[in-house]
Amino acid sequence: MWEVEKIINFKKDEYFIDGYAFVFFGEDGTKLYFNYDNNWAGLLLDNGQFLWTVGEKQNVKSDYHFDIEIKNPHYITKQDNSVLLSEQNGIHKIDYYSRKIETLIDCKKSGIESAGNCIVDSNGDIWINDVIGYRVFRFDKKGNLIEILGNGKPGFSKDDTPFEKVQFNWIYDIRKGTDGNIYVLDSKNYAVRMIDVEKRIIKLIAGTGEAGYSGDNNNPLNATFGGNPEEHFDGPWSLSLDEFDNIYVGDTQNHVLRMVDRKANIIKTIAGNQNVIPGKRNNPDEKNPLKINLPKICSLEYYNERVFIPEWDGDLIVLKKK
Asked: Which one of 3.40.50.150, 2.120.10.30, 2.40.50.140, 2.60.120.10 gives the CATH number of domain 2-10+92-321?
């Protein structure tokens, strides 16, 4: 069971500059923040001050600022004692203690059309989803290319597929599971797939490959996720996993948050309302507090029995396990 713990409006909070924002968490609870619209990121302390910031200089308090140009930061995560930041042009490694920053991976030189996340696996390898390039890139911790999954053309299979033959279709999100595997939101295939790193195969976890809104309380392989052909970024947008590798999907076009319960092997809707009201602010219904307005879920994060749901309009909804 879940409950709405709080709703934060980024645009009204004094240290969040206008523009939609995201907060990710390191394993130690470190808050890693970035602002997509205003091209900057930072490590956020509990008092609202930043330990460091990077990108375009903003009117926020920070201990140190790395003055480099970044464009539309997409994901930020920890790598050992450093931080990796993905943005349109590359993957940057930030070492606050030595106050050094380096471009670990140059997207243009590597052939990445549209870098998404930069996920660090159990071996220290870096996985990057090429959103509109239909591929997943794997680099070692020093930024050397190991392999590419996908041939650059859209495709889909419900069957287990080897690395060498797999195809995707607009990959909006990837995450690492506690099982050591990499989970892929194959968005325009309306599916969640798993990269089994040891066996070198890709497995279908949820979705039929068709758009819709069905399958709740049943096998995730029979579920459909929302589609809207009028949206440039069609399909679900966001993905996250908890400590049990339960999967949370921001089913953007259906305006709901869904969960794949791995133990029970079912999918269910946790929060949201398919009959969304555009422009309505989030004031939970007293009779059904989880029937919240989610016009456009643009990211997800799970940490400490909470799901963080950033909304395109500037709200951050925090759900807590009861």
From this structure: 2.120.10.30
